[in-house]
Design goal:
Elements lengths: L1 H5 L5 H32 L9 H42 L16 E4 L2 E4 L1
Antiparallel strand pairs: 1-2
């Protein structure tokens, strides 16, 4: 996702595939977390599992990975907002100002009055 958003031109199809995969992965993680919490309740365990060295170590690794993924997602959001800003700026430039336009809705040039003279473009 970051490589796609960091490129000068976004490949929308590839970005959509990555986004779909990311959403599916998140749904899986949420399902697994719910199961983890149910097992915790049944076994009367609680994160960060300080009483079990192996679980504690795994939990610490999960926490570190989660923090890293959070930072990456935040960065990707900034990249996406930057692309949205550039797109909005480009659209604003292309919109006619004060009713003057070089091209009409049909894509043909229109006459432009400059200094009292009509100029056809």
């Amino acid at each position: 996702e970051q490589a796609l958003l960091g490129a000068g031109h976004i490949n929308c199809v590839a970005l959509q595939k990555v986004t779909d995969t990311k959403s599916a992965t998140l749904a899986t993680v949420q399902y697994l977390d719910k199961n983890r919490q149910e097992i915790e309740n049944r076994l009367q365990l609680h994160s960060p599992y300080e009483s079990d060295a192996e679980l504690f170590e795994r939990w610490q690794a999960i926490q570190a990975l989660t923090a890293h993924l959070h930072d990456m997602n935040k960065h990707n959001g900034m990249l996406l907002n930057q692309h949205i800003s550039y797109t909005n700026d480009a659209i604003a430039i292309l919109k006619p100002r004060h009713g003057q336009s070089l091209y009409g809705p049909d894509g043909q040039s229109s006459g432009l009055v400059v200094g009292g003279r009509k100029i056809n473009l």
